[in-house]
Design brief:
This protein has about 475 residues and is mostly helical. The protein has 20 helices and two strands. The chain has a two-stranded antiparallel sheet with strand order 1-2. It is globular.
Length: about 475
């Protein structure tokens, strides 16, 4: 049927749209204080609010999808994202804009929910490539969103950008309702409200401290208090989850090496990947007077990152083939190693534009391999009725890694500056140090991937391995 053939493209469109929605606000940030009459610190909450709500809602909506229906929750997440975009299009009030961006954070659950739907609906021979493509949509959408938003901001009123994303969001909701079937796989039970509130408070304290530490001061009372609060609340949450019959997050499942080590690798990979986008954008826009900067506009910067997005689209089938032949943990380890190689290129030459684009594209290639392998590892290690919540936790770990990466890069660049005229700008040494840190973290992710047990024990041809259930998976299914 036509609808069956459209399932993968529609879900991939939703993933790309989610990433575009998260990215489009970036070109606006320098002008938003003037446009909204607010301070730069207040405007930064348009990014922070999306980060916090996405981190909290991803595992929560994943669990809700396992319980109440993945298509239903996926549609709700896309609706919230679209409503937030309409609110941004209609208002210039910074409070409304921050609230709208918080609503859009719900879209972070689109990818794990979609991956879970693909597991339920697709035969094994199509599942690997579909999951790989779905994982790559995060990078593809980010690469497309930045130049698109920059073009709109440069040549039209900034509200036009949000009207455009509202129309795309409405199209995405309509397509999901028409094409995607509701998965019959459910995990019935009572929703863990206490666990949800505990996770929300703990994550908000943790990520707020990480994201605002540079502005508020890492030793300030507010930041130290947030970190202490996060430790206490998450420790109590962990204790509560182990004693709840139907927890929000099955921590016994997380403690299994195949699942827990996959989450660790996701956190490290998220850190390594995010530094590429952050540093590249700042590096190429640095003024030529620095001796290394290229003085590019935001539109030109977006175009520099575009090859990486195209590469992610092209390499996602290769990732699926490697996972089928060698196992997803090998794909993950290889991807993280390629990310590290990309940073070697960045350290070797960050002055010539073609070398900058080459290094960034190599990092994107490694990210494609790694991000495509992570959900496959999770799908093989958890019962079918917990795939959405388990992948939601995995995406959460990537998000935490990205937040820590943002703070670490900012801290490095702040401590390595020089004056150009009367304006302090990061030195080339600061950028190279950030690349070195990200490359080292990527190598740590590769090492963590190689410690994940399971796949190396499988024998036979790739197709035979797809049909042969893993003994550990059978044990999990019967648990």
């Amino acid at each position: 049927m036509v609808r069956d053939r459209l399932t993968i493209p529609v879900l991939a469109f939703g993933g790309i749209l989610m990433a575009v929605m998260q990215t489009v606000v970036v070109p606006l940030l320098p002008d938003l204080p003037r446009l909204t009459g607010s301070s730069a610190g207040t405007v930064s909450w348009m990014v922070t609010a999306t980060l916090l709500s996405g981190a909290v809602l991803t595992p929560v909506l994943g669990r809700a999808g396992d319980m109440y229906g993945k298509r239903r929750v996926l549609t709700s997440a896309l609706v919230l994202m679209t409503v937030g975009s309409v609110m941004c299009a209609l208002s210039s009030d910074i409070v409304v804009l921050i609230a709208a961006r918080a609503l859009q954070g719900a879209a972070a659950s689109v990818v794990p929910l979609s991956i879970s739907i693909l597991r339920d609906e697709l035969p094994p021979e199509r599942r690997g490539s579909a999951v790989a493509l779905m994982s790559s949509t995060v990078g593809i959408g980010a690469a497309l969103g930045l130049p698109l938003a920059a073009l709109v901001v440069q040549y039209a009123d900034w509200h036009t950008m949000f009207w455009l994303t509202s129309a795309l969001g409405a199209l995405g909701v309509t397509a999901v309702l028409w094409v995607v079937k509701e998965s019959p796989v459910r995990q019935p039970g009572r929703f863990d409200i206490t666990g949800t509130l505990g996770l929300a408070v703990g994550l908000v304290c943790l990520l707020l401290g990480v994201s605002q530490g540079g502005q508020w001061g890492w030793g300030s009372t507010r930041v130290v208090g947030l970190f202490l609060g996060a430790v206490v609340v998450l420790a109590l949450w962990w204790w509560q989850q182990l004693r709840t019959e139907l927890p929000l997050v099955d921590l016994r499942l997380v403690s299994r090496p195949r699942v827990g080590l996959s989450h660790v690798a996701a956190l490290l990979t998220g850190f390594a990947f995010y530094a590429n986008s952050l540093v590249t954008a700042q590096l190429v826009q640095a003024p030529k007077a620095t001796g290394y900067g290229l003085g590019l506009s935001i539109v030109q910067t977006g175009l520099c990152l575009l090859p990486g997005g195209v590469t992610m689209l092209l390499f996602s089938p290769l990732s699926a083939r490697i996972s089928a032949a060698r196992g997803p943990r090998i794909t993950l380890a290889l991807g993280a190693a390629v990310i590290a190689c990309g940073y070697v290129v960045r350290i070797a030459d960050s002055r010539d534009l073609w070398m900058i684009i080459l290094g960034a594209t190599v990092v994107s290639t490694g990210t494609t391999l790694a991000y495509s392998a992570l959900p496959t590892l999770i799908l093989r290690a958890v019962p079918a009725d917990q795939t959405a919540s388990a992948n939601g936790v995995n995406v959460l770990m990537r998000t935490i890694g990205q937040a820590v990466s943002s703070s670490a890069v900012a801290a490095v660049l702040v401590h390595h500056t020089s004056l150009v005229g009367s304006v302090p700008v990061p030195t080339l040494h600061g950028y190279l140090l950030a690349f070195g840190i990200a490359g080292a973290v990527a190598l740590a992710a590769s090492a963590a991937a190689l410690t994940i047990p399971g796949d190396a024990k499988r024998g036979g041809t790739p197709r035979a391995r797809e049909r042969t259930p893993d003994p550990q998976d059978e044990a999990l299914e019967g648990a």
